[in-house]
Structures are given as structure tokens and as C-alpha cells.
């Protein structure tokens, strides 16, 4: 991604930039949101409600209101099975968990919390929900994950997963968001709450061993026999995230040669190298944030990392260093559909519109239908649930796929399983994913891509989200005939919240940011860097013209 890089990018985080954990947690309790200020209202984006306590965008009132709204939603939908709740190591996650449990217990919700107060990855919550609900039509489970994903250490986040195990759809989050804001506006008058110590002892609160359940089932997704038999030497950096205590049991249970680079957990994440923009961000797809593991690449046949809630992956190979997410996803798709004979013959390949078109070419060579959807993993949930999608992935390094027998594994992103697949691929192909990517591009074309951000106010962002193909007046894109202009995704007909323009050897997509006053332009060329830059220039000109038009 282009932008102005910080002088600290890729360097150890200095003490001066570490967040004051005590002040952050005090602000969580002491500062109350003003429902009249848009930035302080509950707002569910593609991955739940996120914010910072200092900015009054993620505080105790938000969590109390959202949890009460979830309780009421469950009642309205007849969801009366257990609710599985997990947290990541962000500093605000523990106090938010305590707030949520106070409301869940007061509402009589059967709640499953992690055994021994362990952290819980997003995929472990999805796995627990699906495992409980398998074969059931009543007493269905759902879940909550308290995480802002890979966001900086001062962030907080809260996600709801309904009984299908995946991220809640917009109709669900819209209802919860509206009700939560109404509760805040009323001063939390209708929020039920009981003291935390009492909530922990409630007859409805029970511990659940997420680690044992998830790890024991992993063999139904990953071929550990192949990994163990090959003797590949593996490394993993949990980046101080929720899966930090999962990797040891995985290595022990399956007898694989896996070294945990660090099991350190620190709410300031002081062990991270600084990301491109001068912030600490636990992003396994960023070469700046991944300096520790990149520096160790020659010690392992393949190594990997996951973000804070372990729903995203980063793959470091001896041959190529850190792979771009699109590169590994292309290799993963090519491998899975050739090595999972029990998957349905019509199981499609799922990708978001801004993921690489190399996946399109891989799918075509495999004879598989491509299922292209808007940004957001929620669009893959139904297909993964019923097996009509073998794989669903997005360019930000999030993916999930079916069990080896073709049934559902996780309907949320699973960074652990995706990371371990890099080991299976290396073991079975006797080449690491970096080498396989070069072979793939030698046969299907080698793309170059970039994402740029451009300023846009609220009105312009709203206009961009509603752009129609008729507003794009050009007939050519970077010297080639425009083949398609999309405002709806080909896979499911859903609005993309922007526009995508394609030619034979390139494409761009433009969509507004949900959190900042910018819009994002993604572009990819199958020619060269000069063609990519021309794509970006023409893309920005087209979008600016459309935004400026009455």
C-alpha cells in the first residue's frame, strides 16, 4: 500500500509510543459516549464495532448496550443454546469481557467462557458454535469475540457470530446496532446487569476448553501425517495474540517440528516492529510489522504468523521471504482443489472483488466456478456452511476452507488452519509456497498490484458507494478496452459499495473507507509496473470525475 512511510517503519517500537494501559482502561470506564456524536455511536463495520476508549468510541457503555441488544436479539430469534465468548490480548478486551458477562448473566444466557481465563482465537469460537450446532435444530449456540483484530494496542472491538458460526450479516448487525444506540440514548435504562464476581459464579456461566476441542479436530482439516513424515522444520510467531497457547499443543499432539518463536504477551505489544505508518499494528501481512519472523526465515523450511485474534495469516518462506496475501491465497487455492478429493465436484472458489485476478485464472484452469463477492467475509458464510464453497478468501490475508471430507470447518476466517496449510503444501509438494507461486505465475501470468488512498469527505464517500456503471464514461482503461464495469458482485449480485472496472490485463476497484475520510483504490496489472501506475492514475481520474459530477 502506498503512502507516506514513517521513519520508524520496520524498527522496534520506542518506549515513548507505547500506550498507557492504566489510563486506557480508566477511560474505558470513566468516559461515556455521546449518542449525538456520530463517531461515538455503536457502528458495526465489516468486523463488528471497533473504537478507542480515549476517543469515546469503545467504552463500557458501548459494550453493555451491545451485549443487551444481543441478548434481546437472541430472544427474538429463539436462540436459546449456549453463547461462546472469547477475548484476545488487547488491553481493552478483558474489561469488555467483564462488562459483557455481567449483562449475559443478568439476562440468564447460558455462557461458555474459556477454561482458565485463556485467550480465544476467532476461529475457535466459530468452531465451537458449529460443533455444538451440528445435527441440531433447537438449542442452537452463537458467540461473541472481543477483539479489534490487528488494530493498534489502544483499540477495542466486539463481534457477534450467529448460529451459522460466521460474521453476522448486515440485517443482524443493523438490528443490534440500532437497539444498542437506543439503549445508550436512554442512559442504559433497560440494560440488565449483575456484578462481575456474581456473574462468574452464576449457574449459567461455565468454562469451556476451547484449546482442546479445536486442536483435537484440526487433523480433519490439515494433513499432519504428511507434515510429520516430511520432517519439515516450521516456525511460528503468534505476535502476542490469542492463539499464543494453541501452537504448543498442536506441535505436541501431532508430533510436528514446530518452534514457537515467542510466547510473550504484553498489552503494549512492545515486541512488535512499527508498521508502515508509524503505528504498532499486529498485521501478519505487513513486512514492516513482521520484521522479527522475516529475520529468522533461513532457520525454517516455512514459517508463519497470525494477527491478534488469529483470523489472519502471514507466510514467510525461505525462498521468497514474506509472501503477499494474494500470492499465498493463489497457491492455496491451486493446491486445495487438487488435494481434497472428497470435496464436492461443484464446490466453487470464493474471493472478494479486490483479491487478485490470478485466483480467477487458477479457478478457470481447475475447472471450478468462481464466486466473486463484495468486501467482507460474511459473504462466504453460507457457501462454506453448506459446502458449495470449498474456499473463501480476501486480499487482507483472511481465509477459510472445508474439512478434508468436504463438510464445514469454520465459517469465520481461520489464520491457524491457513498457516498450517503452508506446512502441508511444503511437505507434500517438496517446494515452499514461494517457489510454487513462481511456477504458478510462469504458467498463468505474473500480476503486480497496489492500493492507494485518496481523500474524500462524507458526501463524496456516500456518492462513491452508490456509483453506477453509467457514470463511468471512459471506454478504455490504460490502453485496453473496458470489458466490464461492476457495481454489483458477479457471485451474489450484492452491491459492492463502490465500483470495479476490468480490462483484459488489468482492473481497478474503488470503494470508500468505513472509518476514515478517504476512499481506497485497488489496482492490478498482468503487464508490468508502468501499466499498474497508469491504471492507478486513470482510476483516480475516473473516480474523481464521477464524484465531481452532479
UniProtKB/TrEMBL annotation:
<dbReference type="GO" id="GO:0004614">
    <property type="term" value="F:phosphoglucomutase activity"/>
</dbReference>
<dbReference type="GO" id="GO:0005975">
    <property type="term" value="P:carbohydrate metabolic process"/>
</dbReference>
<keyword id="KW-0413">Isomerase</keyword>
<dbReference type="Pfam" id="PF00408">
    <property type="entry name" value="PGM_PMM_IV"/>
</dbReference>
<dbReference type="InterPro" id="IPR005844">
    <property type="entry name" value="A-D-PHexomutase_a/b/a-I"/>
</dbReference>
<keyword id="KW-0479">Metal-binding</keyword>
<keyword id="KW-0597">Phosphoprotein</keyword>
<dbReference type="GO" id="GO:0000287">
    <property type="term" value="F:magnesium ion binding"/>
</dbReference>
<keyword id="KW-0460">Magnesium</keyword>
<dbReference type="InterPro" id="IPR016055">
    <property type="entry name" value="A-D-PHexomutase_a/b/a-I/II/III"/>
</dbReference>
<dbReference type="InterPro" id="IPR005846">
    <property type="entry name" value="A-D-PHexomutase_a/b/a-III"/>
</dbReference>
<dbReference type="InterPro" id="IPR005845">
    <property type="entry name" value="A-D-PHexomutase_a/b/a-II"/>
</dbReference>
<feature type="domain" description="Alpha-D-phosphohexomutase alpha/beta/alpha">
    <location>
        <begin position="213"/>
        <end position="317"/>
    </location>
</feature>
<comment type="similarity">
    <text>Belongs to the phosphohexose mutase family.</text>
</comment>
<protein>
    <recommendedName>
        <fullName>Phosphoglucomutase</fullName>
        <ecNumber>5.4.2.2</ecNumber>
    </recommendedName>
</protein>
<dbReference type="Pfam" id="PF02880">
    <property type="entry name" value="PGM_PMM_III"/>
</dbReference>
<dbReference type="GO" id="GO:0006166">
    <property type="term" value="P:purine ribonucleoside salvage"/>
</dbReference>
<dbReference type="InterPro" id="IPR016066">
    <property type="entry name" value="A-D-PHexomutase_CS"/>
</dbReference>
<feature type="domain" description="Alpha-D-phosphohexomutase alpha/beta/alpha">
    <location>
        <begin position="42"/>
        <end position="182"/>
    </location>
</feature>
<feature type="domain" description="Alpha-D-phosphohexomutase alpha/beta/alpha">
    <location>
        <begin position="325"/>
        <end position="440"/>
    </location>
</feature>
<feature type="domain" description="Alpha-D-phosphohexomutase C-terminal">
    <location>
        <begin position="495"/>
        <end position="538"/>
    </location>
</feature>
<dbReference type="InterPro" id="IPR036900">
    <property type="entry name" value="A-D-PHexomutase_C_sf"/>
</dbReference>
<dbReference type="InterPro" id="IPR005843">
    <property type="entry name" value="A-D-PHexomutase_C"/>
</dbReference>
<dbReference type="InterPro" id="IPR005852">
    <property type="entry name" value="PGM_a-D-Glc-sp"/>
</dbReference>
<dbReference type="Pfam" id="PF02878">
    <property type="entry name" value="PGM_PMM_I"/>
</dbReference>
<dbReference type="Pfam" id="PF02879">
    <property type="entry name" value="PGM_PMM_II"/>
</dbReference>
<dbReference type="GO" id="GO:0008973">
    <property type="term" value="F:phosphopentomutase activity"/>
</dbReference>
Amino acid at each position: 500500500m502506498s503512502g507516506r512511510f514513517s521513519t520508524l517503519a520496520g524498527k522496534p517500537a520506542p518506549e515513548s509510543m507505547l500506550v498507557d494501559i492504566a489510563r486506557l482502561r480508566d477511560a474505558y470506564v470513566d468516559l461515556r459516549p455521546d449518542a449525538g456524536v456520530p463517531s461515538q455511536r455503536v457502528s458495526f463495520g465489516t468486523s463488528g464495532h471497533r473504537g478507542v476508549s480515549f476517543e469515546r468510541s469503545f467504552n463500557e457503555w458501548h459494550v453493555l448496550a451491545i451485549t443487551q441488544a444481543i441478548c434481546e436479539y437472541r430472544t427474538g430469534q429463539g436462540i436459546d443454546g449456549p453463547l461462546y465468548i472469547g477475548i484476545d490480548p488487547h488491553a481493552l478486551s478483558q474489561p469488555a469481557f467483564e462488562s459483557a458477562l455481567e449483562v449475559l448473566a443478568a439476562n440468564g444466557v447460558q455462557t461458555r467462557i474459556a477454561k482458565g481465563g485463556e485467550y480465544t482465537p476467532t476461529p475457535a469460537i466459530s468452531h465451537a458454535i458449529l460443533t455444538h450446532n451440528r445435527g441440531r435444530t433447537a438449542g442452537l449456540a452463537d458467540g461473541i469475540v472481543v477483539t479489534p483484530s490487528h488494530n493498534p494496542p489502544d483499540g477495542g472491538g466486539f463481534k457477534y457470530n450467529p448460529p451459522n458460526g460466521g460474521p453476522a450479516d448486515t440485517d443482524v448487525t443493523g438490528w443490534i446496532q440500532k437497539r444498542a444506540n437506543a439503549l445508550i440514548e436512554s442512559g442504559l435504562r433497560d440494560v440488565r446487569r449483575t456484578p462481575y464476581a456474581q456473574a462468574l459464579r452464576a449457574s449459567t456461566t461455565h468454562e469451556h476448553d476451547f484449546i482442546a476441542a479445536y486442536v483435537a479436530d484440526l487433523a480433519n482439516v490439515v494433513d499432519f501425517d504428511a507434515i510429520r513424515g516430511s520432517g519439515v522444520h516450521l516456525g511460528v510467531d503468534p505476535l502476542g495474540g490469542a492463539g499464543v497457547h494453541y501452537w504448543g499443543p498442536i506441535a505436541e499432539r501431532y508430533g510436528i517440528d514446530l518452534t514457537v518463536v515467542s510466547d510473550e504477551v504484553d498489552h503494549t505489544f512492545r515486541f512488535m516492529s512499527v508498521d508502515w505508518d508509524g503505528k504498532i499494528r499486529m498485521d501478519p501481512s505487513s513486512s514492516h510489522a513482521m520484521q522479527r519472523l522475516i529475520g529468522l526465515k533461513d532457520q525454517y523450511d516455512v514459517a508463519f504468523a497470525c494477527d491478534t485474534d488469529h483470523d489472519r495469516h502471514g507466510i514467510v518462506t525461505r525462498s521468497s521471504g514474506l509472501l503477499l496475501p494474494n500470492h499465498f491465497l493463489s497457491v492455496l487455492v491451486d493446491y486445495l482443489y487438487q488435494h481434497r478429493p472428497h470435496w464436492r465436484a461443484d464446490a466453487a472458489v470464493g474471493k472478494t472483488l479486490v483479491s487478485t485476478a490470478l485466483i480467477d485464472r487458477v479457478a478457470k484452469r481447475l475447472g471450478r466456478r468462481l464466486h466473486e463477492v463484495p468486501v467482507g467475509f460474511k459473504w462466504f458464510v453460507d457457501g462454506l456452511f453448506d459446502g458449495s464453497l470449498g474456499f473463501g478468501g480476501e486480499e487482507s490475508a483472511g481465509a477459510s476452507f472445508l474439512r478434508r471430507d468436504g463438510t464445514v470447518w469454520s465459517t469465520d476466517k481461520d489464520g491457524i488452519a491457513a498457516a498450517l496449510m503452508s506446512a502441508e503444501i511444503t511437505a507434500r509438494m517438496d517446494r515452499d509456497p514461494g517457489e510454487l507461486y513462481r511456477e504458478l505465475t510462469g504458467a498463468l501470468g505474473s500480476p503486480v498490484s497496489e492500493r492507494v488512498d485518496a481523500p474524500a469527505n462524507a458526501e463524496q464517500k456516500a456518492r462513491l458507494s452508490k456509483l453506477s456503471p453509467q457514470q463511468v464514461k471512459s471506454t478504455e482503461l490504460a490502453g485496453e478496452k473496458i470489458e466490464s464495469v461492476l457495481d454489483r458482485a458477479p457471485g451474489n449480485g450484492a452491491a459492492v459499495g463502490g465500483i470495479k472496472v476490468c480490462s483484459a490485463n488489468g482492473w481497478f476497484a474503488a470503494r470508500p473507507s468505513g472509518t476514515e475520510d478517504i476512499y481506497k483504490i485497488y489496482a492490478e496489472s498482468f503487464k508490468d509496473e508502468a501499466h499498474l501506475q497508469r491504471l492507478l492514475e486513470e482510476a483516480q481520474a475516473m473516480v474523481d470525475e464521477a464524484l465531481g459530477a452532479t
